[in-house]
Structure formats: C-alpha cells, structure tokens
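From the shared-data thread, chain only:
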Amino acid sequence: MIPLILLLAVGGLMQAARSFTTDTSLAGTELAFGFLLLSAYFTAKIVNRFGLPKLTGYLISGVLTGEFVMGFVSHEMTDTLKVVSDTATAILALEAGAELQLKAIRPVMKTLRGITLFAVIGSMVAIASALFIMRPWLPDVFGKLEFTTSIVVCLAIGVALSAQSPAVVMAMLSETRAEGPLSRTMLASVVVADLTVITVFSIVLAITGAVIGGNIDVTGTALEVGWELLGSMVFGVMIGALIGRYLIHVKNGAALFALMVCVVVAEIAPRVHLDVLIVLLAGGIYLRNFSKADATQLLHKFETAQLPVFLVFFALAGSHLNIYKLWASIIPVAIIAMTRAGSFFLGSRLACKISGAEPVVAKYAWFGLVPQAGLALALANVLRNNFADSFGNGAAIILLGVVGFNECIAPVILRIMLMRSGEAGKKAGADFATGGH
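Structure, as tokens:
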C-alpha cells in the first residue's frame, strides 16, 4: 500500500511541476530523470509483490507516464535523456563480457558452438522468415519498403529479436543458488549468444543502412564493418586494461570509476564510428580473463552505481511504446515470440544431441536463451534512432512487444526449470552477479 501511495504522490507532484513549466532544457531533463527514477522504483515494488520481475515494473512505469498515456514525460524530455540510454547499453555490455570466464566454458565448448549455430543463428533466420511472411500484417514496418529492402529489414529485426538476457539468467541462478552443468551451460550460452548477436547485428546494421540509403557500396560497407568490429575490439581491450589497472592500484571507488568509463565510451565511441556494445563487451572479457584484477568484486560493487541508470533506461524504453499500435500488432508479436522460443528449443536440442551433452542440459538449457531485457531494448533503440524515417519506429514497437511478453513469463518459467533440474540449492553462496532485472 505504501509504494502505491508514494507512486500516486510522485505522479501528483509531476503533474503540478508540469503545470508550471514546459521547459525541456536542463531543468526539464532533471525533472524527467528524477520523476522516471522514482516512478519506476515504486512501480517495480508494486508489481514485484505479484511475482512479476522488477524490470516489468520499470517498463510499465514508462508506458503509463509516457506521451501515449498520461503524458507526464514528453517526447522532448526523453530525447534529452539519450545519454542515459547509451550509458545503460554500455554497462550491460561490460557486465556480460565480465561474466564470460573462458576456462569455465571449455568443457562445454562443443555444445556452445552447436547452440550458437543451430539455436541462435537459426533463430535469426526463423524470425526473419516469419516477419517476411507477415509483412501484410505490419504496414508500419513494411508499408513503404520494396521487396529487396524488406528482406534486409527482416534480417535486421530478426537479429535484434534473437538477443538474450544474461542479467535475468544470472539473477535466477543467484536466487535459486543453482550449480552444475546446466547452470554453467546456461550462463555461458547466453553470454556467447549476445556476443554473436552484437557482432551479426553490427554487420546487418551497416548493410541495412546502405540499402535504405539507396547506394550500396560493397567496399565501403566492408571497410566500415571491419573498422566497427576490429576497431571496437581493440579499443575495448584498452578499456578493459584501464579498468583493470584502476582496480589493482586504486581499488576505492571502482564501481563509480567503471560507471564513468561507460559514460565516456557511450559518448565518444559513436563519434569515431565504434560500436559501444562491442567495445565494452571486449573490455569485460579482457578484464575477466586476462587482467590480474578481480572482476567479480567489481561486478558486486557495480550494482548500486548502475541501478539509477537502469531504472531510467527501462522506463525510457517503456515511454516510447505506443500501446495502441502495439495492440494492433498483438497477433504478430505473439507469433514472433512463439517462433523465437520454438527455434531455440529445436536448435538447442539438435546441438545437444550432436555434442552428446548431459540429459539435464539437453532438456532445459534451451530456455536460458528465451528471457530478454537490456540488449534487446538497446537494439530496439538503435533501430529507432537510425531508421526513424523508414521502419525504425514500427520495428521498435514489435521489439518492445516481444520483450515485454518474454519479460512477463520467461523468468517465472526459468525458475521452475532450474528447480526441476535438481541443481537448485547446490551452491553454497551466490557467486553470480545479482544485478537482476
């Protein structure tokens, strides 16, 4: 009851503040940030009591307070908070990379390769095919596109929709204190899958930009993609080394320093045509596997520093969701969500059969790929921002709809599967990061 009362009070104060000013400059930015921070926090408290993930509360808060419902936060205000979205994307990538311990995944490498090929890349093709078939149902996305352009757009959206959520998986592993081959395979598979998604998405994004622009320069596109991939990886290693040296020699304030690095990279990388996701993912992998610094300690301290950024980031994502257009697309969203889950199931089963994985891995590992959160939302923002004049806004609606659908049901089912696997409770302490959204 208290969170509900506080939420209503915050809403009333925001309405009063908006009645005095429509400023969208610095004051308007601070007002929007503070309101989204508080409303997302209290909404998450409320929905969590009904067994829903807190991230669902963040999204609901954004939807209700955004321009399409109550209108507390205008479109101009959300535009001024773009740095928050970019920083959250950087944080997610750094955490995902820092959780990928190469030594731990060597025993299941054959299974991981199979899951990556058959389940992850297979889902990209399956989702893109489903989208291509459903083009007449999605006029906001494909209404003005030619046949060839539609194929490329389907691939771009399909790759974005295949993204996973290491944060959700880590949170469930921590909550259930699960330990064993299934837990290790799940965690490794979602991190490797996200690395694959980021890499493929960068390539497809460059191709899509060339096609939408109307001038396809194969050599220029290849050079651009090569710079974004290789340049981002090299720069990421440098970032990982920088954070590592700070952890070794300074230690105090490590979480805030890492957060500051994420802000700086989020601002600088796009200006020099580097991919923020790949930069911080490479930085996290270096920090975890090649630096002498304790990456686990950083991740545990990172949660407090990142929480306000994530609250506003997810609320911002929800505020851009046009629920009226989403309702009109509810059938395609449901079909895509089922296609995505089905492709993960079939691809993982095939990979486990070929690699001779343990029965518990073959039975349950596929569902670790289903939850979605930060990365999928980040890729939705990328498509919206880069292709706002063509298919970007319509694609973002589909992406947010599928993410919302999966966020409501996937964590609950994942917890049940971990309990049934017999691995729950076998870990004496929660070693996985609990940054759990």
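Confidence is low (pLDDT under 50) at residues 429-437.
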